[in-house]
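Work Package 3 (structural annotation) set out to generate three-dimensional models for the target panel prioritized at the project kickoff. During this period the team completed the workflow that converts sequence records into discrete structure tokens, so that structures can be stored uniformly alongside our sequence database. As a representative example, we reproduce one entry of 600 residues exactly as it appears in the project archive.
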Amino acid sequence: MAEQSKIGRRTLLQAAFAAPATAALVGSTGTAAAAPNRDSGDQRFTIAVLPDTQYLLDEGGSDPEPVKEALRSLVRRRREANIVFLAHLGDVTEHGTEQEMRTADAVFDVIGGQLPYSVLAGNHDVPGGDDQRGPTPYSRTFGPDRFQRMKTFGGASPGGYNTFHTFRAGGREWLVLALDWRVSEKGAEWAQGVLDRHQGVPTILTTHDLVGNSPEAALSAHGQFLWDRLIKRNDQVFLTLNGHYWPSGRTTLTNDHGNPVHLHITNYQERYYGGAGMVRFYSFDLARNVIDVETFSPWLLTRRNTLPEAETAERSGDLDRFSVELDFGARFPLPPSAPRPARSVVTRDTLAYWRFDTEGLPSAKEGPVAPGTVVRDLTGKGNDLTVVHLHTGSPDLLTWHRDHHDGQPAHASLLFGGGKGPDRGAILRTAATAPIASAKFESGYTIETFLKLPSPFDGDHAWMGVLSWEGRAGDAGKHSGWSDLEPTCSLNVSGERFLQFVVYPVPGDADPTSWSHAIPVGRWTHVAVVNDGRRTTMYVDGAKIARNASEESRGITTQGKPFVIGATGFDLQYGQGFYGSIGDTRITGRALRTDQFLTG
């Protein structure tokens, strides 16, 4: 598993050991209002899965405490692990009697209203038949009435044996279909209706009997019915979870749309202490396009004094701890967000803001942008940019297109065709009289831009300027840097694709420099340089980089010379211009927080 997953797992185990098993929880009835399903927009969130608990909820003599502790631990960790939902996979009890259901009712009451969840009937919970059976102790305990006050609850089929929930996480909606262990044709019609009303919503289908494992994971007879009737037809179903069979297993099938569906068996009742309340975490990471899966018993993590306890506390085999790769953006594309107008990102402290849609570039259209074209400074402070071609080159040295960073206010950018052999490029340049050309920024500043390097990154691109102020360091009396000829402030991309921000501050003769990691090709990157009047910090995609300048740095030694996008002062005389795309660029006269960046 990837290193990030290992770190997450260590955090989880530390939290499990630190939390007392007897932690008190609020909540007394199964119909308590579930906590609001708020979506923080965090690209990482967790769906918890609890399989067959029947051996621990058995009136013939058992111990419900491991299940209680599993539920307590989920409530304790719901914020830290961003647990957004819990799915039980059926066989809650051994015999489905009134007494066992009363016990199960009390066990689930420990959740109170603090975590939304679904429960479905397994063969041990109901006397037989399919989802058209009449009332049972199970349906009176875990029927629709139990979930009515949960904000995630969407509805139930007639009779109440099939339910669905929707929740928001990672900036989008998700659907969980919790189906009876024996879905009838009428039940399948109901489920199809739910999917039809939620077209395109990524869906997890949970049931008790779907995939068996004898000896390898494959559809059971009832699973084949669900696959043919429901799953393979609906591309939005990407993951199915079931219990019933053991040992655990997984397989992947291709649906009618040519996309993979991941089918997983989760069941630990055959292990020590009836599975000891084993929980599985499905940790979604939409930024990495992966689901990291891990399996453990919160109850046993507090003890592990004997060999059976130690062997069962956490599972490490490739059927119990693994990762599933899935490109969520490609499989489930979100509708494009609307552009944000300039007025929404221009504040009192904004000194210059340029964008390349029709707000900033009234003549914007697909194709080359001619020399002499003006890009407006949308603060109205007089820092307009003019297109200039460097050296010689074709008209497509600078072209307009609609490509943009997902978080960018304007839905447009400029593609710069800089290169060497022969040297060529295009720049956007202010007038020497523009306010930004002589501003000193001694109280602090934030410089933001959006970049995209082409893929493949072909040609001789040893060093490229993204933006800079014209004027040589030596002419400003600064002689401590790499060369007296370098600009007094510039953001550059090295041949290894490292970002470099170098600045000569107003006082002193040092040139504090920050270096990023190698930025990706073929993907938009947001870059922000923040100075608080003392220190400079670079952020790449909202994350602070490691190699920030150690020297104190106040202000920028500008010399009343133009500000340039697409090159540095070196490139204006010799060398290449920028090769790649640049989007919205903003300069603010104070240090901004990360939540105030253009992506916010």
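The chain has ten helices and 33 strands.
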